[in-house]
Amino acid sequence: MTRQARTVFALTAPAYLWLAVTVLLPLATMLYFSFLTASPLGGKEVQFTLKHYTDFFTKQIYWYNAWRSVELGLYVTALCLIIGYPAALGLAKYIKGRWREAIFLLIILPFWSNALVRTFSWTMVLREPFNILFSYPAIVVGLVHAYLPYAILTCYISLQAIDDSLIEAGRSLGATPAQAFRRITLPLSMPGIMAAIFLIFVPVIGSFMEPRILGGKDAIMLGPIIEGQFITAFNWPLGAALSFTMLGMVLLILLAASPFLKHQMARS
Amino acid sequence: MSRVDILHVSKRYGSFAALDNVTITFNDGEFFGLLGPSGSGKTTLLRSVAGFIVPDEGSISFDGEQVENVPVHRRAIGMVFQSYALFPHLTIADNVGFGLDVRSTPREDIRKRVTEMLGLVRLSGLEGRYPKQLSGGQQQRVALARALITRPKVLLLDEPLGALDRRLRQEMQVELKEIQRETGVTAIFVTHDQEEALTLSDRIAIIDQGKLIQVDAPQTVYERPANIFAANFLGDANVFRGTPVKDGLKLADGTMIETLKAATGAAIVRPEKLRVASGRKKAAGNSLAGEITQAIYSGASVTYRIRTKAMGDVPLLAFIQNQTGEVLDTGTLVTVSWDKDQTIPVAP
User: Fold this and answer.
1) Is residue A216 over pLDDT 90?
2) If you ran DSSP here, which 8-state letter would residue B341 be given?
3) Which CATH class is domain B4-228?
4) Mean per-residue pLDDT for B148-159?
5) What is the reported pLDDT for A264?
6) ipTM of this predicted structure
7) Given CB atoms, is A187 within the 8 Å cutoff of chain B?
8) What is the pLDDT of residue A267?
9) Do the Cβ atoms of B252 and B330 come closer than 8 Å?
10) Which residues is B296 bridged to in the sheet?
11) What is each CA distance from B175 to B127, B170, B180, B184, in whole angstroms?
12) What's the pTM value of the predicted model, to 2 decimals?
């Protein structure tokens, strides 16, 4: 090993070791569980099976609920961007100094409060005066609230990196403010939008707390179903299999979108 | 191609006057240099013409039509930024064609004009590249082509060559001047580089603290500066202060300096107008005895700093053309002389 290779190894080894123990090991265990007939705990007799995976593809209920989760992901991601992008634009380009700091604090504040407390406090507001508690819109509201800061922060970072002179150049060349936004600001902030999509869409698909607390009977979707397998039904193998199926689904969606993503990344 | 009139324009930021009652005319087809230190208001003036800044008072008109309330995108200007401000996500062709594209020009016409403009700036064949794949000089030329493609009434350049190294800057100066002449566009540029201002401009405005100090041809500003600030800002100057007497100035120690015409209290002489001879000699015109305190040899010329009794702490600065290959040592006693006609009275 060269001196440099040794240095790199010494610097990265602890992180790799940590990841191996805390991420790969439990995941590998879960992957193993997902092929068993029952949890191999408590000395039960278990066998190898593909049933949990084949169930997903043969039983319509899973398909239907997987779609509901993806749909929820689309709604929440879109709403976060629709609300968050203009806020980020305002912060990055129009608000300066102390006000910017103050507003940032307000945006980050939800991060510092306990997620469970935050979600339960929503139940109060959603019951009275909005009267939409235990419904699909309530889930969307709770999730948008939880994930909005990601959209604002990632979009803000890419927007404030855009040199003002680029927009001025566009305006000097005859672009109206709207044209300058569409042709310069928007494409150049694409990396921020992409990052927001990654950070919001994926966890929302698997979310279970907000649907469970705010959704009532509308909470039936993949996230809560998986949670149920672990917590109430105690069917870990099925829960694990559904988790990995969901992971595969997310990867497939990203794979399908990758030509578009690559194009956006290459341009910026 | 337009005439631009600035009439009594002022712009204040709090108590700071960025522009203070500026009146100036940029003639049709003129290459005009705005020269001043940073914070002098030269950029504010340029950005007011562009429309990014709306003046508090006064009017700006293009060919007699007032434009203060016309938004930037309808002013028909072209602008070149110091950082070039090329769109990083667009190809060179799309960058150059941007101005036509936002005006919904047919694709085929855009393509033709882009080819034409890239030919003008000698970048044919780079249509498909992205800005970051180009060198600084090439990016500069793309920025120029992009600004000119819409045939703007006036081309505004903000420190256009500031980011280039010295050699490239000199090359681009020649090229910029040629392109401006070829297109006949009225061009206004901001710079703090005096050499750039002298080389490029048909006329120069010296700006300080939001006020116009002098507006003239480069040669006039250099040879006949209006005041000490102008003399020091454009080139180097030896400044004499004294009491006005007939035919000249009487310095603090009683030395008489003859000036071109009646002085009001100060006069300057450019360092290259001085002659330096070793020993004490009687010379025609103005002369001072002194001692060389510094000699810097730079090939084509030698720069001397000379201490004289008349000037006290401030050494005389002399640029002497290297005709003999000899350099006088520091400590040499010399006589510095120059013509009365080169002693220019200036406002203090």
Assistant:
1) no
2) G
3) alpha beta
4) 95
5) 65
6) 0.86
7) yes
8) 56
9) no
10) B303
11) 20, 9, 9, 14
12) 0.84
Identify the residue with better confidence: B56 or A219: B56
Nearest to B87 among A166, A172, A179 (CB): A166
- C-beta of residue B177 within 8 angstroms of C-beta of residue B199: yes
Contacts of A173 in chain B (CB under 8 A): 73, 78, 98-99, 102, 146-147, 150
Residue B227 phi, psi (nearest 5): -145, 180
> Beta B31-35 vs B203-208: how paired, if at all?
parallel
CATH topology of B4-228 equal to that of B236-345? no
Which of the 8 DSSP states describes residue B131? G
A14 vs A24, A26, A28, B3, CA distance in Å?
14, 18, 20, 69
Model pLDDT, residue B1? 63
Which CATH architecture describes the domain B236-345?
Answer: Beta Barrel (2.40)
Tokens of B232: 């020091």
Chain B residues whose CB is inside 8 A of the A188 CB are: 88-89
Domain range summary for chain B, segments of one domain joined by +: 4-228, 236-345
The pLDDT-based confidence of B43 (bands split at 50, 70, 90) is very high
Closest A-chain CA to B83: A165
Give the residue numbers in B contacting A (CB under 8 Å), as ranges.
50, 52, 72-74, 76-79, 81, 83, 85-89, 98-99, 102-103, 146-147, 150, 156
Distance from CA of A194 to the nearest CA of B (A): 16
pLDDT at A108: 84
Interface contact A169, partner B, CB < 8 A: yes
Count A/B contacts: CB-CB distance under 8 Å. Answer: 67
A179 contacts B81? CB cut-off 8 A: no
Interatomic CA distance for residues A122 and B90, integer angstroms: 45
| A179–B contact, CB cutoff 8 A | yes
Tokens of A153: 């922060």
Whether residue A128 contacts residue A173, with contact meaning beta carbons closer than 8 Å, is answered with: no
Residue of B50, B83, B87 lying closest to A172 (CB–CB): B50
